Amino acid sequence: MEEKTFISLYQKPFAEQIAFNIEQLNYRYKRLSQTDTTNKENQNEYLMIFDSFLALFRALFLEKGAKQYTVQNYYRAKGDDEIANKIDDFLDTKIFSWSDKSIREVLKFIADKFVCHIDPIDRDDLAYANFCMSHLGNPYVDNNLNDIMHTISKIMKKE
What we know:
This protein is an all-alpha fold. Helix content is about 65%, strand content about 0%. The chain is built from seven helices and no strands. The chain has helices at about 10-35, 45-60, 70-75, 80-90, 105-115, 125-135, 145-155. Helix 5 packs across helix 6. The longest helix has 23 residues, at about 10-35. The termini are far apart.
């Protein structure tokens, strides 16, 4: 029996799946950014789209380990470590100037505690998640969701 190597996971079918997932992520982000949260009737839809977006973002970019099917591992398998490392370096930068928390840690915290798992939470977790989500949606602060998506897109396009 032939042993599959890590690289064999990243041949054409996986490349097509990565492209499809990136397209879906961009679509979800576009819908998210078009949803007017000042209208109370749209708030549940916003949360639904945000959850869907964040679950896919987590799967594509936030997982660690050589066997995860992340965008970074896809680039590494193609021999383009520079792009993979730039994405990881960006996600590991501080999200807030006053905190040591990285973009990766904050997004993974929200995804793990509130979207992908049903983890025990306390009031501090809920308050922190609400603060982080308001930061991510605020167009007037650095490292908001728009900045994160724009920066990752630029890295992937080698700009």
